[in-house]
Amino acid sequence: MSSLDKDTPAFEASRLGRKDHWDTVYDRELRNYETTGDIGEIWFGSSAATKMASWVARTTQPTARILDVGCGNGHLLLELASRGYTNLTGTDYSAQAVRLAHEIALSSFHDITYAEQDFLDPEQVARVAGPKGFDVVLDKGTYDAICLMPMEDGSVDQKAIDVYPESVARSLAQDGVFLITSCNWTEDELAARFKDHLVLFDRVKHATFAFGGAVGQTVVTVAFKKRQAA
Prior knowledge:
By secondary structure, the protein is of the alpha/beta class. It has helices at residues 19-36, 45-59, 75-81, 95-107, 122-129, 142-146, 158-171, 187-194, and strands at 66-69, 88-92, 113-116, 134-140, 172-182, 198-204, 208-211, 214-217, 220-226. It is built from 8 helices and 9 strands. Strand 1 (66-69), helix 3 and strand 2 (88-92) form a beta-alpha-beta unit. The protein is globular and about 55 Å long.
């Protein structure tokens, strides 16, 4: 897949980009958890979460202030909590996801803060980030979903796609880092789409496959720093 202009949508809008879809999913997973104890689906599998947590553990201190955007059931923050991280916040625009994540954390005896947040709303971004911002912002699939968000006419909501990197930058402390895992975009495409606000500086290796003479990965995980003003 070649690098795309950040203003050119590459996917058609989908129910995976709609809040009502995720409300339904997490309502079902919440009821299932309360009945069976099953925490539900782990996006991209547990291996991706483990690799992200390992990268954070190698590069930050356990006291780092960390935000997981679109936290879902909170699995990624549970992984960090199990490694001794103590200043963890997860947000999601689905109230059902927040409730599920909170219940799972309580049953696991981890003190993790969860809250509803529309990450595309500047006021809500500022409220959650506070005056200092986060040392680390994490995304495991949230940007992928935002890139599928539909408008009323069924087209992709390009404004939402453009606002997302601004929200990341506003959430970060001055020297904070952003770690994202995506199954829809390559490293080069993410770098191009975020270039106005973020600078790529590191990556996490995943299992590769070869096809037609090319080598690729089913997911990519890359790290960015906030672009400093000239």
